[in-house]
Write a structure and sequence with these properties.
Mean pLDDT: 77
Distance between the termini: 21 Å
Helix content: 25-40%
Order of helices and strands: EHHHHHHEHEHEEHEHHE
Number of strands: 7
Number of helices: 11
Radius of gyration: 18 Å
Shape: globular
Strand content: 5-15%
Strand order of the largest sheet: 6-5-4-3-2-1-7
Structural class: alpha/beta
CATH superfamily: Glycosyl transferase family 29
C-alpha cells in the first residue's frame, strides 16, 4: 500500500521534541496517511503501575526537558511503542487491550502474540542506543510528490527517519534519501528482495489479524508460508534479522484509528478500504496548521 494517490504530505518534521514522543508522533503521522494506527499511552509515575520492562527504560524515556507543542494533543508522559515477550500481557491489561480483538487489542490472540514475540530478540526502541533523549525526526511517505524535489540530503540529515511499507530507497536516493531508522510494514507490504536489506533499519510490524502473527512466527522459524487469509500474497522469506523486528502495541492502533479517526471496530476484507482518506487528510492538516509538524514538500 502506498499513499501516492491519497496525500501530498510526504515528508514532515518536528524539531526539539523528546525522542519517545517524537517517534510516536511520526508513527501517528504515518497512521493518518496510511491507516490511522498509532498513538502512545500514559504509564503512571508510580512504579507499581509500570511493567518490569518499562521500569528498566524509565530514565531513557524521561530525560528530555523540552516540552513539545503537541503534548496537549498526545496527553501522554511515558510511552513505549513496542511489545515485549516478558510483559505484553501486563501491558495489555494496563492499557485495556485485553478487552479488544485485533487490530485494537490482544483478545483471543494471546497465544499468537506469545509465539511471535518468542521469535524476536529485541523489543527496544532501536538496536543501538535507547539513552539519547532528544533527536530530530522525519517521516517519509511513498507519494510521487517527492519526485524531483531533491530532498534526499535534507531527509538524511535527520536523526530518525521513518518510512512506510515497501516504499523504495534504491534508485530514488536524491529525492528520498538513503537512510531508514524505522520502517512500518505488515506481511503484505514488507520487502522480500534482499537487495532492499538495510542492517540499520528497525522493522515495525503492524498487526491487523492473528494470521499476521502466525506469519511472523512461521517465517522466522523457517517454516512454509501459506498465503491463505491475506488480502494479497505476503512475503515468503524474511530478509531482516529477528533482532531488527518489533511488534507495535495494538493499543496505539486503537487510540489513533478508533478514538481519533473514528474507524470502525470491524474492517472489510480489502486492505485499501481501511482508509478514511478524508479523515486522514484533515488530521494531518490539523497537525500542520497547529505547527506541530512541518511539511517539507
Amino acid at each position: 500500500m502506498t499513499i501516492s494517490s491519497q496525500s501530498n504530505w510526504d515528508a514532515v518534521e518536528v524539531n526539539g521534541l523528546p525522542v519517545m514522543k517524537r517517534i510516536l508522533l511520526f508513527f501517528i503521522l504515518a497512521a493518518a496517511v496510511m491507516y490511522g494506527i498509532l498513538h502512545g499511552n500514559l504509564w503512571r509515575n508510580n512504579f507499581y503501575w509500570l511493567p518490569p520492562t518499562a521500569v528498566e527504560r524509565r530514565n531513557a524515556l524521561n530525560t528530555c526537558t523540552l516540552k513539545p507543542a503537541f503534548e496537549s494533543l498526545l496527553d501522554v508522559e511515558k510511552i513505549y511503542p513496542f511489545l515485549c515477550a516478558s510483559d505484553f500481557i501486563r501491558v495489555a491489561e494496563y492499557h485495556g487491550s485485553d478487552k479488544f480483538e485485533l487490530p485494537y487489542g490482544i483478545k483471543r490472540a494471546e497465544q499468537f502474540f506469545r509465539s511471535a514475540l518468542s521469535k524476536l530478540q529485541n523489543c527496544g526502541l532501536s538496536n543501538k542506543d535507547d539513552t539519547v533523549a532528544c533527536r530530530r525526526c522525519v517521516v517519509v511517505g511513498n507519494g510521487g510528490v517527492l519526485r524531483n524535489k531533491t530532498l534526499g540530503g535534507k531527509i538524511d540529515s535527520y536523526d530518525v527517519i521513518i518510512r512506510m511499507n515497501n516504499g523504495p530507497v534504491i534508485g530514488y536516493e536524491e529525492d528520498v534519501g538513503r537512510r531508514t531508522t524505522f520502517r512500518l510494514s505488515y506481511p503484505e507490504s514488507i520487502f522480500s528482495d534482499p537487495i532492499h536489506y538495510d542492517p540499520n533499519t528497525t522493522v515495525v510490524i503492524i498487526v491487523f489479524k492473528p494470521r499476521d502473527l502466525k506469519w511472523l512466527w512461521e517465517i522466522l522459524g523457517g517454516q512454509k508460508i501459506s498465503a491463505k487469509g491475506f488480502w494479497k500474497k505476503p512475503a515468503l522469506n524474511m530478509i531482516y534479522k529477528s533482532n531488527q523486528i518489533r511488534i507495535l502495541d495494538p493499543s496505539i492502533t486503537r487510540k489513533t484509528a478508533y478514538d481519533w479517526l473514528h474507524f470502525p471496530t470491524r474492517f472489510p476484507k480489502k486492505e485499501n478500504e481501511y482508509h478514511d482518506i478524508s479523515a486522514e487528510q484533515k488530521f494531518l492538516k490539523k497537525l500542520i496548521d497547529k505547527n506541530f509538524v512541518v511539511n517539507l514538500t
